[in-house]
């Protein structure tokens, strides 16, 4: 049968990632709590699973690596090798190599260079006995006889009474023998069948005497009975001299007495292994996640298509509702109300399909903190809260890197060395806490440390040196802290290889903003720092403020909206030739006229009646001039770039309940559309 | 009526591969992610073949085989276990628990069907 094994590779890679995450988590536990057999079992099982599947799907390098790893882990389970700190470190390195290796296989790239080095180390620890074990399975059927030569065999097959109770069927075995024979004769030995009264219908009382001629070697005949153990229920005898008389297969059958044994068919290898002690009837396991829950893996594209279609369904339903009210006025249709409810439930459900817990991402951070604190000679207790909080899979996938940078920053710049901490009257052990929770339709991740906090003066000095701000600028604490997100900013006196050259925080901000999110910082000198990342729960829908500008409706992401005001005309001032500003509680806010920026033809916003929506972008406020606030609405985001060019200032589009299209404004893009020069003048 | 196979493995890719191969051979397949999951899915059902991995969380393959053999419907059902070359002792343990046969990983679909052919009509 032709089955392309490549079709299972994607599933393999995905589960291998999961196994690696579990393995890493268990290794960290092992390092902390020493030898708990259940933790070792979890680690072993992960390596074992990866090995089994990778060897089946021909992912040989992974199979080779995990084979050695598995052997080492097996010996650790047996108590032959003790889990020292060094060994835990080596095992953690192995998971890194394995992760790189799997990534390389996935991208069809060569194996990482570190593989052989780690492999050698694993060999050294596990002992040389692991090297040859891989060949074992290949040499199962040695060809001890030349093919094509026909031999006659006599087979006596006398299964045990409880043969049926092992799920076997003697007929299948006899037929298999028949299928490989040129000549075949079988006779049932019925001598052991008891009287009807004593007969147990579930027992097997028969034996068979089979004489066959075949060109296959004896091992192949023996293989037919490979599952029939106990050695003494099958005997195979090759009849050496094939005399002319016996050519016609005249078998002599000795009733009731088994034919002489030639060879035992099973390997009597009954070593008592320590496995006995670890295979209880029902294993307790540390990995209780997902137990009793069944999952189906679905291609992401198909899922997105479905969610999109359900979004269309929601729009379609609103259109029907509007049509109804146009013809029937206030009269309600109970069927429509019911339909609307079902459709909205369906949409909610469909969006929840994309939600996954943030736990795996948090888990990776635990490892980072461990490695970094070791390297930097710091003592750090890493805590996580709310790992089970769910978030859109796309967001989860993309938040990993920004989080990593922020965690590194906390460990590298935030937490002090133990001596410094003691001198400052703090415990030697620092604390980094990663927290996730939902708040008002947003997903919040907080990174909190009890380190030295941000140094306002040093940041400011650096920013002035770099020409990012000028000395005359009157900046609030928050303004100063926000400077660490400026491109190329680094305050560490020495650029370490840990936090890099300050590219990190700039990228962090951009990545978070690309996810429609925002970052803020709270810091208390000497007490610590808290970074708060605010993200939308999903990228498929958006909470928006629907506004009218001219003839058209636009959606402003609610996350950016601070407030809306209706100032009198005299509050708005024009800086000659450069633009308009408004002073809001002492703060100068530039005014952006959406109609002008987007080149809209007719708008009444130039009249005296100004309506301003104050939005925030990268910690700075802007005010957008709109004609009317139409309300707050959850909209399904449609990507424009699939069909159109990327339009600056426009994040996407959505279809409103009345079927009309509204553009979703991209605040960041909109602000950068207005020339920097012009804005600078306003500030 | 199509024959029914129960395929139990905590590795999704392996389970998919075995399930797909058996489906191609005309089986209707019930999948289980571990012993406990599998037991829950086959209660009261008639199954013609069981293929199970041994090393699984929650309930391992050996315990599953033992449990299945206690169910009247599974008294005579062929049960194949998926083992690795390093698990000879497991093989014996599995046989003692009531397994019919085994298949050594790595294997390909043809090898799987060849072994299945030994135990299912």
| Domain module count of chain B | 1
- What structural class do helix, strand and pairing data of chain A support? alpha+beta
Q: What portion of the residues of chain B fall into strands of 2 or more residues? A: 15-25%
Main sheet: strand order of chain B: 2-1-3-4-5
By CATH, the superfamily of chain B comes out as Response regulator
User: What portion of the residues of chain A fall into strands of 2 or more residues?
Assistant: 15-25%
CATH domain topology of chain B: Rossmann fold
Mean pLDDT of chain B: 89
Number of helical regions of chain B = 5
Quaternary structure annotation: heterodimer
Strand ordering within the main sheet of chain A: 14-18-19-17-16-15
The DSSP helix count of chain A reads 19
Please describe the biggest sheet of chain A, giving its number of strands, its sense, and whether it closes into a barrel: 6 strands, mixed
Number of strands of chain B: 5
- What is the CA-based Rg of chain B, rounded? 13 Å
- The CATH first-level class of chain B comes to Alpha Beta
* Corresponding CATH architecture of chain B: 3-Layer(aba) Sandwich
């Amino acid at each position: 049968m032709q089955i392309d094994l490549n079709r299972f590779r994607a599933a393999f890679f995905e589960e291998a990632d999961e196994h690696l995450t579990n393995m890493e988590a268990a290794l960290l536990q092992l390092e902390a709590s020493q030898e708990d057999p259940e933790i070792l079992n979890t680690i072993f099982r992960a390596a074992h699973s990866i090995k089994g599947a990778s060897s089946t799907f021909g992912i040989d390098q992974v199979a080779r690596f995990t084979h050695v790893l598995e052997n080492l882990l097996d010996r650790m389970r047996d108590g032959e090798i003790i889990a020292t700190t060094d060994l835990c470190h080596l095992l953690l390195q192995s998971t890194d190599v394995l992760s790189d290796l799997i990534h390389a296989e996935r991208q069809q790239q060569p194996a990482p260079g570190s593989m052989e080095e780690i492999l050698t180390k694993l060999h050294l620890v596990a002992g040389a006995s692991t090297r040859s074990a891989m060949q074992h399975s290949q040499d199962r059927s040695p060809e001890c006889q030349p093919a094509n030569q026909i031999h006659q065999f006599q087979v006596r097959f006398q299964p045990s009474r409880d043969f049926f109770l092992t799920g076997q069927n003697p007929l299948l075995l006899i037929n298999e023998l028949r299928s490989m024979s040129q000549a075949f004769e079988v006779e049932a030995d019925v001598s052991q069948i008891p009287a009807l009264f004593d007969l147990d219908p579930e027992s097997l009382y028969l034996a068979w005497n089979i004489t066959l001629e075949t060109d296959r070697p004896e091992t192949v005949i023996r293989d037919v009975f490979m599952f029939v153990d106990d050695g003494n229920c099958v005997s195979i005898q090759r009849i050496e001299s094939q005399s002319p008389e016996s050519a016609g297969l005249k078998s002599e059958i000795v009733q009731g007495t088994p034919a002489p044994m030639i060879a035992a068919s099973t390997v009597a290898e009954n070593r008592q292994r320590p496995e006995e002690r670890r295979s209880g009837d029902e294993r307790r396991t540390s990995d209780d996640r997902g137990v009793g829950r069944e999952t189906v893996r679905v291609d992401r594209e198909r899922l997105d298509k479905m969610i999109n279609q359900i979004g269309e369904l929601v729009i379609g339903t609103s259109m029907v509702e509007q049509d109804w009210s146009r013809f029937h006025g206030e009269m309600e249709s109970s069927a429509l109300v019911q339909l609307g409810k079902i459709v909205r439930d369906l949409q909610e459900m469909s969006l929840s399909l994309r939600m996954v817990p943030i736990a795996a991402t948090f888990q990776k951070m635990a490892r980072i903190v461990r490695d970094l604190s070791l390297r930097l000679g710091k003592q750090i207790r890493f805590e996580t809260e709310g790992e089970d909080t769910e978030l859109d899979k796309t967001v989860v996938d993309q938040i990993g890197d920004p989080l990593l940078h922020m965690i590194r920053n906390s460990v590298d710049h935030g937490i002090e060395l133990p001596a410094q901490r003691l001198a400052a009257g703090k415990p030697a052990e620092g604390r980094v806490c990663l927290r996730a929770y939902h708040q008002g339709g947003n997903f919040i991740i907080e990174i909190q440390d009890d380190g030295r906090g941000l140094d306002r003066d040093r940041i400011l000095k650096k920013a002035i040196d770099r020409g990012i701000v000028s000395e005359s600028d009157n900046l609030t604490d928050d303004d100063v802290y926000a400077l660490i997100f400026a491109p190329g900013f680094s305050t560490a006196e020495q650029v370490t290889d840990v936090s890099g050259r300050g590219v990190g925080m700039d990228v962090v901000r951009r990545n978070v903003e690309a996810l429609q999110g925002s970052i803020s910082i709270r810091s208390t000198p000497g007490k610590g720092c808290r970074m708060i990342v605010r993200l939308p729960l999903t990228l498929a829908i958006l909470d928006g403020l629907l506004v009218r500008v001219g003839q058209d409706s636009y959606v402003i992401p609610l996350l950016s909206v601070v407030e809306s005001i209706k100032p009198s005309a005299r509050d708005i001032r024009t800086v000659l030739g450069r633009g308009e500003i408004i002073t809001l509680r002492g703060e100068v806010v530039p005014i952006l006229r959406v109609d002008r920026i987007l080149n809209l033809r007719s708008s009444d916003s130039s009249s005296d009646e100004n309506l301003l929506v104050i939005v925030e972008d990268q910690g700075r406020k802007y005010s957008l001039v709109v004609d009317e606030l139409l309300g707050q609405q959850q909209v399904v985001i449609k990507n424009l770039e699939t069909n159109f060019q990327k339009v600056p200032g426009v994040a996407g589009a959505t279809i409103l309940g009345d079927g009309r299209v509204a553009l979703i404004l991209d605040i960041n893009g909109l602000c950068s559309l207005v020339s920097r020069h012009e804005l600078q003048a306003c500030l | 009526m199509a024959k029914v196979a129960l395929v139990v493995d905590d590795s999704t890719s392996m389970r998919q591969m075995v399930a797909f191969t058996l489906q191609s051979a005309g089986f209707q397949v019930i999948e289980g992610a571990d012993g406990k999951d599998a037991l829950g899915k086959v209660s009261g059902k008639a199954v013609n073949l069981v293929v199970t991995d041994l090393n699984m969380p929650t309930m391992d393959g050996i315990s599953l085989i033992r449990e299945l053999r206690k169910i009247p419907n599974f008294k005579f059902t062929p049960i194949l276990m998926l083992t690795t070359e390093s698990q000879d002792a497991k093989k014996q343990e599995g046989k003692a628990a009531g397994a019919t046969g085994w298949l050594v990983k790595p294997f390909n679909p043809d090898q799987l069907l060849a072994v299945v052919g030994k135990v299912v009509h």
